[in-house]
Amino acid sequence: MLSKRLGSILQRLDCSGRVADIGSDHGLFVRACAEQGSPRPIAVEVARGPYSQSLAQAGQSREPMDVRFGYGLDPLQPAEVHTVVMAGMGGETIMEILGHSAGKRCSFPLWFFQPMTRHVKLRRYLSEIGFSILEEWIVWEGQRPYLTVQAVPIEQPWPVQLTRWYPDFGEEEYMIVGPGLLLNPTHAVHQFFQHNLQGLKSCFARIPEAHRRIRQTMQQDIFLWEKVIQCHLQYSQWHR
Ligand SMILES: C[S@@+](CC[C@H](N)C(=O)[O-])C[C@H]1O[C@@H](n2cnc3c(N)ncnc32)[C@H](O)[C@@H]1O
Exposed end of the chain (fewer CB within 10 Å): N or C? Predict the structure, then answer.
């Protein structure tokens, strides 16, 4: 059964285009793409065990899917797929894979990233390599939030909505919080922002008074997240 976080990507896929899932592991996502009508989606795996698991899913799938062994985008031809998915990996691994295929990456028009770590670093990196974030959302599985970033390999101006609803924010704040999350009025995003703020506050409470510098920086972060929540509430009330 497909997890809720992977299901949220599947829901948004345009199944008329070909899809590749890098780091397919169990192979469930690619099988679900195939069975939902995506033409011969491709599972890519670099580790033997997960590669075998993906092959096993291909054997059971009602619709055809490919399984390829190799690193990142290496097993794909330029422009071979419309959509690339990289889910369940650390942000560093995603950046390494993108950096490794700098010449090829722009030939794939649509991307979904589900980084388990380093959200801010990944956003900054995407911006550096000329990708624009179209949308971001949060899925909660139990107590844990999962971020998904949908991006295109084209430079685009920031949506005017950002400056309208978050007038004191600039590029730095967009990278920290997520431009797509700021414009996503769902309760899941609100909960995520609250979760970050509570995490910061409980961390702050444990820092000894003597560590003035650290406390000062953390206070600024707390102030930022309080402001984010305040503006996001107004934005959400207007857009729900
Ligand atoms: C934790 S699993 C996530 C599986 C699945 N995408 C999901 O979200 O449930 C990460 C998978 O990525 C694979 N992987 C890591 N680096 C990779 C790379 N450079 N190229 C292809 N696969 C990679 C690992 O072998 C592992 O099976």
Answer: N
